[in-house]
C-alpha cells in the first residue's frame, strides 16, 4: 500500500510533530509512506524525518503555500499512490482540486486539527469547504470537540472518525539527567513554567506572561517554539518588566528533557483541537494547567487544572496553589501521568492503519 502524507511545511506545530513521530512507525509496520511539502524549507523536523529514512518531496523551498498554481505541481503525484492523507489548509484544498483535475481514483484522507479556523467565520467559505471536504473519503478528527464543531459546521458526521493524537510516551518518562541551569541557563532553585507552542494567533502566551507578573521573583518561564508573534510576546514581557524571567528558547530538539526539568507545564490557548504539548507535559509527570477551551479541556480536564482563556489571575493562583501544597502538587502530577497513557502513539497508529486498510479493502 502506497501512502503519501501532504502538509504545508515541516515548521513548528502539532500537526508537523505528529508527522515526524508517526510516519516512521507506519513504515516499520510495512506501509510505504512518503511525505510531500508545499514549502520544502529545511527545518529541524525536515532533517529529523529525513534521517529516519523517509522520502520527502517538495514543491519548492520558500513557496507561498497559498498560491493555487501549486495545484498543477501536485498533479504528477496524485496518480502514484493508493491513499493521500492531507493535513492543514491550504493543502487540503490543493490536493482535492488536483485529484479532480487528474481524474485519479486515489483515496483521500484528511485530518482536521482544530476546533475552529478563520474560514468558518465567512459565509463564502462554508460552501467552498463543503465542496472540498466531500472529495475526502474519510476525515480524521483529533478530538471529540473537533468532531462536534466540524459536524455543526458542515453536517458531514458520517465521514468523520475521531482518533486522538498520540505521543511516544516512553520519550517523556526518561530520567532527569540534567538541570535547569545546564539545559536553559535558569538557576536550579527557580520555579520553572514551560509552554511549548508556536507563537501564532491561536496560542495565548500573552496570558502566561501576564500571570508571571503576579508570581514571586523565583518563578521563570521558558517558551519553546517559533512564530510570527514571538516579537510581540518579547515586547510584552519587556513592557511588563518580566523579560529577565522569561526565556524564549526557539525550536528545540530536547523537549522531553525540558519537560522533565520543568515544575509546571502550561498550555495557554484561545482554541485547540487537541493539545499535544499538554499531553507531553502530563507524560513527563508534571502538573499541567490549560485553558478551558474545547479540545484542551477534553484532554486535560479531570487530570490537570483548567482556567478560563485569558484569565491570568486564575492561572497565577493555580500555580501558587500547586507550589504551596506539596500533596496537591503530587496528586495532580500523578493524575496527569495516568491520563497521558490514553494518548500513546501506538493506539493512534493502529486506528490510522484501520482507516487505510478499510479504504483499500
The computed structural class is alpha/beta
CATH superfamily of the largest domain: Glycogen Phosphorylase B
| Share of residues in helices | 40-55%
Gross geometry: globular
Give the biggest sheet. 7 strands, parallel
Summarize the structure.
With 361 residues, the chain is of the alpha/beta class.
Q: What layout of secondary structure does this protein have?
A:
Blueprint: E1 2-7, H1 14-28, E2 32-37, H2 44-51, E3 56-58, H3 70-78, E4 83-87, H4 91-102, E5 107-112, H5 123-133, E6 138-141, H6 144-154, E7 160-162, H7 180-184, E8 191-196, H8 205-212, E9 219-224, H9 230-239, E10 246-248, H10 255-261, E11 264-267, H11 276-283, E12 288-291, H12 296-300, E13 305-307, H13 312-324, H14 326-340, H15 345-360
Parallel strand pairs: 1-2, 1-4, 2-3, 4-5, 5-6, 6-7, 8-9, 8-11, 9-10, 11-12, 12-13
Helix pairs in contact: 1-2, 3-4, 8-13, 11-14
Amino acid at each position: 500500500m502506497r501512502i503519501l502524507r501532504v502538509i504545508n511545511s515541516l515548521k513548528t506545530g502539532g500537526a508537523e510533530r505528529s508527522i515526524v513521530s508517526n510516519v516512521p512507525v507506519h513504515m516499520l509496520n510495512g506501509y510505504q509512506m512518503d511525505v510531500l511539502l508545499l514549502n520544502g524549507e529545511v527545518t529541524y523536523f525536515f532533517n529529523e524525518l529525513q534521517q529516519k529514512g523517509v522520502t520527502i518531496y517538495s514543491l519548492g523551498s520558500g513557496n507561498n503555500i497559498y498560491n493555487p498554481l501549486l495545484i498543477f505541481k501536485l498533479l504528477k503525484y496524485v496518480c502514484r499512490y493508493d491513499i493521500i492523507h492531507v493535513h492543514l489548509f491550504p493543502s487540503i484544498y490543493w490536493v482535492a482540486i488536483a485529484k479532480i483535475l487528474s481524474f485519479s481514483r486515489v483515496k483521500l484522507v484528511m485530518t482536521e486539527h482544530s476546533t475552529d479556523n478563520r474560514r468558518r467565520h465567512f459565509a463564502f467559505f462554508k460552501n467552498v469547504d463543503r465542496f472540498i471536504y466531500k472529495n475526502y473519503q474519510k476525515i480524521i478528527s483529533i478530538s471529540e470537540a473537533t468532531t462536534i464543531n466540524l459536524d455543526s459546521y458542515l453536517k458531514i458526521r458520517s465521514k468523520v472518525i475521531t482518533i486522538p493524537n498520540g505521543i511516544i510516551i516512553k520519550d517523556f518518562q526518561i530520567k532527569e539527567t540534567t538541570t535547569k541551569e545546564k539545559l536553559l541557563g535558569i538557576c536550579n532553585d527557580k520555579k520553572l513554567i514551560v509552554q511549548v507552542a508556536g507563537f501564532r494567533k491561536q496560542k495565548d502566551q500573552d496570558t502566561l506572561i501576564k500571570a508571571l507578573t503576579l508570581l514571586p521573583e523565583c518563578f521563570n518561564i521558558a517558551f519553546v517554539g517559533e512564530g510570527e508573534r514571538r516579537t510581540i510576546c518579547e515586547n510584552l514581557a519587556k513592557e511588563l518588566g518580566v523579560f529577565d524571567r522569561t526565556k524564549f528558547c526557539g525550536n528545540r530538539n530536547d523537549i522531553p528533557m525540558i519537560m522533565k526539568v520543568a515544575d509546571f507545564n502550561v498550555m495557554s490557548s484561545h482554541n485547540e483541537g487537541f493539545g499535544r504539548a499538554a499531553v507531553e507535559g502530563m507524560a513527563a509527570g508534571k502538573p499541567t494547567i490549560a485553558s478551558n477551551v474545547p479540545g484542551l479541556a477534553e484532554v486535560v480536564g479531570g487530570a490537570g487544572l483548567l482556567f478560563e482563556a485569558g484569565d491570568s489571575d486564575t492561572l497565577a493562583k493555580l500555580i501558587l496553589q500547586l507550589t504551596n501544597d506539596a500533596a496537591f502538587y503530587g496528586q495532580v502530577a500523578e493524575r496527569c501521568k495516568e491520563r497521558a497513557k490514553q494518548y500513546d502513539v501506538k493506539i493512534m497508529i493502529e486506528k490510522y492503519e484501520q482507516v487505510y486498510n478499510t479504504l483499500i479493502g
